[in-house]
Amino acid sequence: xxxxxxxxxxxxxxxxxxxxxxxxxxxxxxxxxxxxxxxxxxxxxxxxxxxxxxxxxxxxxxxxxxxxxxxxxxxxxxxxxxxxxxxxxxxxxxxxxxxxxxxxxxxxxxxxxxxxxxxxxxxxxxxxxxxxxxxxxxxxxxxxxxxxxxxxxxxxxxxxxxxxxxxxxxxxxxxxxxxxxxxxxxxxxxxxxxxxxxxxxxxxxxxxxxxxxxxxxxxxxxxxxxxxxxxxxxxxxxxxxxxxxxxxxxxxxxxxxxxxxxxxxxxxxxxxxxxxxxxxxxxxxxxxxxxxxxxxxxxxxxxxxxxxxxxxxxxxxxxxxxxxxxxxxxxxxxxxxxxxxxxxxxxxxxxxxx
Length: 354
Ligand SMILES: *Cc1c(COP(=O)(O)O)cnc(C)c1O
Hints:
By secondary structure, the protein is of the alpha+beta class. The chain folds into two domains: 7-168, D-amino Acid Aminotransferase, Chain A, domain 1, CATH 3.30.470.10; 175-339, D-amino Acid Aminotransferase, subunit A, domain 2 (D-amino Acid Aminotransferase, Chain A, domain 2). 24% of the residues lie in helices and 30% in strands. It has helices at 63-67, 90-103, 111-124, 198-212, 257-268, 280-289, 326-339; strands at 8-9, 34-41, 44-52, 70-72, 75-79, 85-88, 136-145, 158-167, 175-179, 217-221, 229-232, 235-241, 244-247, 272-275, 292-299, 303-312, 315-318, 350-353. Strands 1, 2, 3, 4, 5, 6, 7, 8 and 18 form a nine-stranded mixed β-sheet that branches. A six-stranded mixed β-barrel has the order 9-10-11-12-15-16, surrounded by four helices. Pyridoxal-5'-phosphate binds at residues 74, 195, 231, 234-236, 254, 256-259, 299-300.
């Protein structure tokens, strides 16, 4: 990668590494020593540097706080047995980040800053990447508007940062999902496909209602009729109905890289795949008739989380036992081996940090 940005590294004088108990990592609460920091103003990215992780000040009028120009990404890096460091498909996250930026009228972040900066940050904090199988380094790039002006217009200044967290193995309980038929996550023409902060703020109230009713998550449906399945929480949905691997499609869902990866794998393995509208009625009919043999949420956090139960219009529908779900078990096994460098990377998904 040629570079127009020389990334200066300001190292911490006091690493926190020795204070961390890597056997009890809680997701998203321990941060590595350093962060990437970049500023955008006068229509250009100015300064890119790696600095000690820590708080910083912004104006109370910073427009992200008032009008919500704020986007992010979530990526994982893994350490192989031989110590090599690999980031899983970060090029896809970079593209999606800029798609989100465009929709929110924010500047794009060049590859050299997003990917080049990420590689350099991981080099600096490589000791923070856990090696134990199942654990990884969660990478969180994000950008927000910083102009101190209370007028609704695109900000003229932004910050782009990358912070990272070591995370342990993620054992996910099977999910009990509530089909949401009143609240809406995203509508056609809206921002559902972008990973912007507002999409999460609006999900919290309906999700709390679902939790109060004994569910784990909301299964979102289309805004117009509440008939078609979209996604659940912060993960996409994949079903096996008959012999076909099916995932909902459209501009209202967040196009997950885990989802894309799994569909690509299914294609390669010779399954029939379909990306299309899936009605809740079709799924319930399939559960009743026994044609639904697999159903799971797919996302970077847990890769695959099986769905055990679906609640719809006051009734509960039970899916087949989680053990013995052939497709999702095969996917998980393959991805676990691939991401720790145990099998050949025939797709070129592992980006090795030099
Ligand atoms: C991040 C996210 C996903 C999953 O995307 P991955 O790239 O697979 O991690 C799905 N839905 C929503 C709403 C998300 O924010």
